[in-house]
Design brief:
Length: about 230
């Protein structure tokens, strides 16, 4: 188990491990626990009622945050012709076709946060699985990153659409803003994200879908949220 530093252990004392906090109180508390010298991300960790070993219960989709995540999202688009122009017009950071595929393949280049591909590019982009897959950057129809509507996808990801996918233990983790955000913006992002996540429950998953929700900063201990938030 990873050892935590002195500052982490100090702020950990502020959290009652047996308590489930109301959302307003939890946001206030995680901000109070901040000791890092940078503008930390506010993160939500959700335990889902799924069996992650069953492919039909895995969750991979997107949710839209009304206030974004507080950072510039760098987008790479694999497209040609009109689709490439559309991507550039909407502010994609990197746009290319075979040249971009080659750059990723030969250089292992992944200097972007989201990869979007036109469907006709997937024959070539599919070869990048070994590079993009481990970093969670492989375009996928489920995540809305393989699409004919390139312009709209770029616009939405720039505005605050984020991918959510469960890990091997059936949990999902995603950012909902920065420590510097107003409390109300963080709250609205969390509520919007959980409402959308709740709608992603696989039909084969039985019982409660959102089992436990924890709020934390990049460097802080987690704070458990009460059931009024976990829907």
């Amino acid at each position: 188990m990873a050892k935590h530093g002195k500052k982490y252990n100090e702020v950990k004392k502020l959290v009652d491990r047996t308590k489930f906090y109301a959302l307003d109180e939890a946001i206030e508390l995680v901000k109070k626990m901040s000791y890092a010298k940078f503008d930390e991300s506010v993160e939500v960790h959700v335990q889902l009622g799924i069996d992650a070993t069953k492919s039909d219960q895995n969750v991979r989709s997107t949710v839209s945050l009304p206030h974004g995540i507080g950072k510039t999202v760098r987008i790479a688009v694999f497209a040609t012709g009109d689709k490439a122009k559309e991507a550039k017009d909407m502010g994609a950071d990197f746009v290319g076709a075979g040249d971009l595929v080659e750059k990723v393949m030969k250089e292992g280049w992944t200097d972007f946060d989201v990869a979007i591909a036109a469907p006709d590019m997937m024959k070539d982009v599919g070869k990048l699985g070994k590079v993009l897959g481990p970093k969670g950057l492989m375009p996928s129809p489920k995540a809305g990153t393989v699409t004919a509507d390139i312009g709209n996808a770029v616009k939405e990801f720039k505005a605050g659409r984020i991918e959510v996918r469960n890990d091997k233990t059936g949990n999902v983790h995603f950012p909902v803003g920065k420590k510097s955000f107003d409390d109300i913006k963080i709250k609205e992002n969390i509520v919007a994200a959980l409402e959308q996540l709740n709608k992603l429950k696989p039909t084969t998953s039985k019982g409660k879908f959102i089992k436990k929700v924890t709020l934390a900063l990049t460097m802080s201990p987690g704070v458990k949220l009460d059931n009024s938030v976990s829907l």
